[in-house]
Amino acid sequence: MIGRGWIALCCVALLASPVRAQSVDLELILAVDSSGSIDGKEFQLQRMGYASALTHPEVLATIARRPHRAIAVAFVEWSGPAISTEVVPWTRITDAASAGALEVCRIGEWPIQ
C-alpha cells in the first residue's frame, strides 16, 4: 500500500504546472493504481470510470455553474512508493469538448504506463 507521504510528494510535483496560472474552481489529481495487485480489467474499469465521470452532463453542468467555469485535472498512474507516471499533465476543463479531448477520456488509445 502506498504511503501518504508519497502521495503528497506526487501532488506537490504536479502543482508546478502552467495550468495553475489560469483561474480554476478545482484542481483534481486522478491517481490510478497500476501495480500488479490489479488486473487489466480492473485497470480499464478505473480509467473508464474517470472518463465517464469527467464527461458526464451533471459534472459538466456543475463546472459551468462555478465562478471560473473551469477545473484543472491531472492523471497519474502509480505502482509503488517510488514508481509513478504522469499520464495526463494538468489540463483545463471548461466544457464537453475540453473534457472529451482529455487524454484520460480516450481510454482505448493508450496502454498501461
What does this structure look like?
- The chain has helices spanning 4-15, 40-55, 57-65, 96-101, and strands at 26-33, 71-80, 83-93.
- It has 113 residues and is α+β, with helices and mostly antiparallel strands.
- It has one domain (4-109).
- It has a three-stranded mixed beta sheet with strand order 1-2-3, sandwiched between helices.
- The longest helix is centred in the middle third of the chain and has 16 residues, at 40-55.
- The chain is globular, with a radius of gyration of 14 Å.
- Residues 12-16 have low confidence and may be disordered.
What's the number of helices? 4
Shape: globular
Helix content: 25-40%
Q: How many discrete domains?
A: 1
User: Which regions contain 5 or more consecutive residues with pLDDT less than 50?
Assistant: 12-16
One letter per element, helices H and strands E, the order comes to HEHHEEH
What's the end-to-end separation, in Å?
19 Å
- Computed structural class: alpha+beta
Largest sheet properties: 3 strands, mixed
Radius of gyration: 14 Å
Portion in strands: 25-35%
- Write out the strand line-up for the largest beta sheet, numbering strands in chain order: 1-2-3
Indicate the mean pLDDT.
78
- Strand tally: 3
Keywords:
113 residues, 3 strands, alpha+beta, globular
